[in-house]
Amino acid sequence: MDSIIPQLLTGLAGASSLFLVASGLTIIFGVTRIVNFSHGSLMMLGAYIGWSILTRLPREPEWFVLGIIATVLATAVIGVLLEVVVLRRVYRAPELFQLLATFGVVLILQDVTLWIWGPVELPLSRPRWLRTAFDVAGSRLPMADLILIIVGPVVLGLLWLVMNRTRWGTLVRAATLDREMVAALGVDQRLLFTSVFALGAGLAGFGGALSLMSASANLHIDLAVITDAFVVVVVGGLGSLTGAFAASLLIGILQAFGIVLIPKSTLVLVFLVMAVVLVFRPNGLMGRPQADAREALVAAPVVRPAPRELRLLSLATLLLAIVAPFFVGDYYLTVLTDACVAVIFATSLHFMMGPGGMASFGHAAWFGIGAYAAGLLMQWIGAPMPIGLLAAPIAAGIVAALFGWFVVRLSGVYLSMLTLAFAQIVWAICFQWVELTGGDNGMLGLVRPEWARDERVFYWVALALTVAVALLLRRALYAPYGYALRAVRDSATRARAIGLNVGWLRMAAIVIAGAACGLSGALFSYGKGSIFPTYITISHSVEALLMVLLGGLQTIAGPIIGALVYTGLADILMRSTDLWRLVLGAVIVLLVVAFPEGIAGAARRLWLRGREA
Amino acid sequence: MHVTRRLILGASGSLALPGLLRAQGTAPIRIGEINSYTTNPAFTLPYRNAMQLAVEQINGKGGVLGRQLELITRDDAGRPQDAVRLAGEMVNDQKVDVLAGAYLSNVGLALGEYAAQNKRLYIGGEPLTDAMVWERGNRYTFRLRPSTYMQAAILAEEAAKLPAKRWVTVSPNYEFGQSGVKWFKQLLTARRPDVQFVGEQWPALGRVDAGATVQALEQMKPDGIFNVLFGPDLTNFVRQGNTRGLFEKRSVASLLTGEPEYLDPLGDEAPEGWIVTGYPGEAIDTPAHKAYAAAYRAKFNAKPMCGSLVGYALINSIAAGVTKAGSTEIEKMVEGFRGARFDTPVGPAEYRAIDHQGTLGVFVGKTALRRNEGVMTDWRYIDGKDLLPGDDFVRGLRPASAS
What we know:
The complex is a heterodimer.
Chain A: H1 4-32, H2 39-54, H3 61-85, H4 97-117, E1 122-123, E2 133-136, E3 139-142, H5 143-165, H6 167-177, H7 179-184, H8 189-211, E4 216-217, H9 221-236, H10 241-261, H11 269-280, H12 308-323, H13 330-353, H14 364-381, H15 385-407, H16 412-432, H17 434-437, H18 455-478, H19 480-490, H20 492-497, H21 502-528, H22 538-551, H23 557-576, H24 580-594, H25 598-612
Antiparallel strand pairs in A: 1-4, 2-3
Helix pairs in contact in A: 1-5, 1-6, 1-8, 1-9, 1-10, 2-3, 2-4, 2-8, 2-9, 3-8, 4-24, 5-6, 9-10, 9-11, 11-16, 13-18, 13-21, 13-22, 13-23, 14-15, 14-16, 14-21, 15-21, 18-19, 18-21, 19-21, 22-23, 22-25, 23-24, 23-25
Chain B: H1 2-22, E1 29-35, H2 41-60, E2 69-75, H3 80-92, E3 98-101, H4 105-118, E4 122-124, E5 141-143, H5 148-160, E6 166-170, H6 175-191, E7 196-201, H7 210-219, E8 224-227, H8 232-244, E9 251-258, H9 260-263, E10 275-278, H10 287-300, H11 306-325, H12 330-337, E11 341-344, E12 347-350, E13 362-370, E14 373-382, H13 391-397
Parallel strand pairs in B: 1-2, 1-3, 3-4, 4-5, 6-7, 6-8, 8-9, 9-10
Antiparallel strand pairs in B: 10-13, 11-12, 13-14
């Protein structure tokens, strides 16, 4: 292979652009512990703002540099705004809650960008000097690649200097290691957080502006970039800049050679890398175990059985739900059926996330496995709906058990990211194994039996299953098993000391959650009549998170309320306005700011305030 | 809870009204259209504009069967499951007579499946997958646009005239890309047994690693390149290819690249001499097209895109189908749409009775630069009926239940 050097250089250029995005993300995470979904949106804004500035400047290199600097400053200012207006208000909320806010920001920025710059992709007309290339080992190396190859290490060097040779950098490193201690020593956290956010956003804007050298500013950048950036950050080790750089190199180069050797590996390669790395190094290449001992002292409140009034309210709601088919139209009946599915989807995630303390970023994997299990059984042996509904949780449970073996040893965001990687791998299998699953064209013709063809009957089936699942999960929570699981969440060390089998308890939680979620997937598929890989996308997993967090983690009613509110909101907004992303995003942000403990949590607090005072 | 209930009751009450009116026979004919307006606005917004133009024109001439047309659109957010839910809303709440729409192939298939299970008429405008009318075709689903097969067929025909023998393919890693490559290989090899396919690249849709992909293709030293990338992927690929000299002294055949949606963003870096399918836009100087383009410009102050043509033709085809059926009763409409002929700005077309495929044609030509913008030159229009395979072949693919 005389082509190794050119391919390597291409890989290095790819690695640099990965690093530019990931470095900002990892710094922000290290200090603020925020899983910032909107980082990709900041990069997208960087590309658009860069386009707007650079198209107005002369085309000489010095102006190009100037334009890029202006773009970096502009995105840094946007980052500051974001931090001051939204995120600052939710730092006190439980971990991961900020994720919800940043996802709302993603939705808002999508519509804002569309509104400002229009739907057409905007490529920057490249000046002549950017179109040149150098002959290297018999191939041409474009100027843009050369610039990237140089910029990556330079940025790393500059960041290293800032982190290691300035007072501000020392504070950032200290905060990355132990936030509470830094606060206790009297450091102004607000200023620190805001400035870190500015730096991170500026880096994202830098990456976006530089991407204009070879790509266009378009509306798909945000989501295309964010997953790759997460992968790099996690593989490198959260908060570690050198780790992020190493991970960028690893992934960039593997990608460059991977597509030569196995051209169809593009969908899954980065996630396979992440899964393998996390299995062998649970804290990433250069990350350290997170210091969580102190935080665990502030244990989450104990979940108690609902008060009598709430039970009565629940009962009334249930009765209303049972008679609903007699007074709502056919369409709202399907929305209610979808809501039932969403309730199972959310409560199952809540089970492993709330009491289990394991936030899954890939919950849609079980949903999809349940759906495809039902679909494949129908295709192979013509299995009718009841068999499909039975097989789905079993299949999802079995796969969850296999997968749980890798997961239970991880903690925090690493665990979440491994679930994400797993979901992406499942997605890629369903997407690419066309002979088995029909690929992205999906599986069609999932017909309900004659007796359940009627929407009403199917709705009652869904409702009955939903109530059964919710009650079973509740039962498990108040059983000794549930208390043991919560003990493991609050302090794994102490739980182990009193003889609890931590691994087994968490594994069981994953299997139960996976099985329940698999049922919701099959139910959904019979409702829609077809199955698609879109059931397993990251955005579907994020929806599950949204529902759980919207409702609140600390009560069992939380995920149910969250699922109902989210389904209803999304349905009404999507049908009434083209700007539904903007409105939905704004509502999410407002809810997060107003109810940092979720809707159910806030209701509970208000209720208790009247009682316990 | 009370608010929600009242809302639902109120909403369903007001929505039941059109149903009551409809009984009188003068109520509008409702078309419920579902498309990826938020996820693919570059294509779908001009498409929706043109649909509105067509509805306006038809209503100005007295409507269809003496009734006005009414268009209702919804956003599917790029997800087939949402499209199916909205189809239910359109049918049950909005009481639409015809379902239409979809941009993505899987959304088209999902809507087709909904139509089959619920016995509703669905006219797909844009989705390209062959499965929609062949392997997965059904009685209630029609499709307007020339399919992946038809687009690949004309490119294979043109590619066969070239001296190039060593071909490589580059294509987004999903169904559209896969079937595009499959048909191109099959049809080109049938015409030219001496042709060899020496390599392929499958970048993830929307996330092409263009440098590495171009480098990998370069190594295979091909004579010809078959490309299926489009949108931002294409921009990225073309830039890397230009800088690295991938396209020099090589033939390139490229699916859809001649559509202004994808050609315009390439700006002054648009490649020259690629054989492409697409849409020459206002360069078409037939009276019908000129009138259409002028009306479109007058209304929206923008140039008509390929999506506009599809949207405009879609509404006209629905009007023709309903007219031929003489009724909005579903089974009658199915029979009516079979063989329904309609005029489009680029020529007459019909829905074939054998597989429900529209015979809207394909423009094939070469790309060139004019005043720093990419355009199609030497183009010609090929009627869709001349691009489809033999009837026996089609019958063999289509399930028996679809008749």
